[in-house]
């Protein structure tokens, strides 16, 4: 482990999820963050292939490459900016992508609070250095985002981490006949 609680590399992972915060315009940044869960229940930020100033086809291609590179089992994409169009763009890039759309409710800062607690308690860590993501995370406060632009990377990370920490759904079964 490095001095600030981050690790140089993640241990063996049981699941990888990629969070996506699509841009509202072609000039915006598409937050794409890969996160993984280790056997001991600790989640790690693995990579930040976010991209800005490109058309939807380009960020979708970047996402397909990231999904393959990290062997992600799921992509969680915020649908507030574009709705079903987000899924259509992703399916056009690769019809087999495992995509789940998520609706943003409270503010980005409020959504990030439970994940921030995971970092504070050592249940989430950075596996490497991610300067752009870390700058955005530092700008999230109780009062909202205090940085330039939008924290697209931070929001994508929150979607991925939130998904990794969800309790698995119970399998349906018959209790009695």
- Do you know the CATH architecture? 2-Layer Sandwich
Helix content: 25-40%
Note the run of SSEs as H and E.
EEEEHEHEHEHEEH
Outline the low-pLDDT stretches: none
What top-tier CATH class fits best? Alpha Beta
Overview of this structure, please?
It is built from five helices and nine strands; from the N terminus they run E-E-E-E-H-E-H-E-H-E-H-E-E-H. By secondary structure, the protein is of the alpha/beta class. The protein has a single domain (13-164), classed as 2-Layer Sandwich (Nucleotidyltransferase, domain 5). The strands form two sheets. Strands 1, 2, 3, 4, 5, 6 and 7 form a seven-stranded mixed sheet that branches. It is globular and about 55 Å long.
In brief, what are we looking at here?
The protein has one domain: Nucleotidyltransferase, domain 5 (2-Layer Sandwich), CATH 3.30.420. A hairpin with a 2-residue loop joins β8 and β9 (144-145). The chain has 177 residues and is an alpha/beta fold.
Fill in the keyword field for this structure.
177 residues; alpha/beta; Nucleotidyltransferase, domain 5; seven-stranded mixed beta sheet; two-stranded antiparallel ribbon; 5 helices; 9 strands; 24% strand
List the helices and strands and how they pair.
Blueprint: E1 13-21, E2 29-38, E3 43-47, E4 51-52, H1 56-70, E5 74-78, H2 84-93, E6 99-102, H3 108-120, E7 124-126, H4 131-139, E8 140-141, E9 144-145, H5 152-164
Parallel strand pairs: 1-5, 3-7, 5-6
Antiparallel strand pairs: 1-2, 2-3, 2-4, 8-9
Helix pairs in contact: 1-2, 3-5
């Amino acid at each position: 482990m490095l001095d600030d609680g981050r690790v140089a590399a993640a241990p063996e992972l049981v699941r990888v999820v990629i969070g996506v915060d699509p841009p509202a315009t072609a000039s915006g940044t598409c937050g794409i963050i890969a996160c993984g869960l280790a056997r001991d229940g600790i989640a790690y930020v693995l990579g930040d292939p976010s991209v800005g100033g490109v058309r939807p086809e380009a960020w979708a291609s970047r996402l397909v490459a990231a999904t393959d590179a990290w062997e992600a089992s799921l992509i969680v994409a915020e649908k507030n900016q574009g709705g079903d169009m987000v899924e259509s763009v992703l399916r056009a890039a690769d019809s087999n992508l495992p995509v789940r759309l998520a609706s943003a409710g409270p503010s980005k800062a409020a959504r990030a609070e439970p994940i921030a607690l995971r970092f504070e308690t050592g249940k989430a860590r950075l596996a490497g250095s991610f300067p752009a993501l870390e700058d955005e995370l530092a700008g999230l406060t109780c009062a909202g985002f205090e940085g330039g632009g939008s924290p697209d990377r931070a929001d994508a990370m929150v979607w991925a981490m939130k998904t990794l920490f969800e309790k698995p759904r119970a399998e349906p079964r018959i209790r009695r006949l």
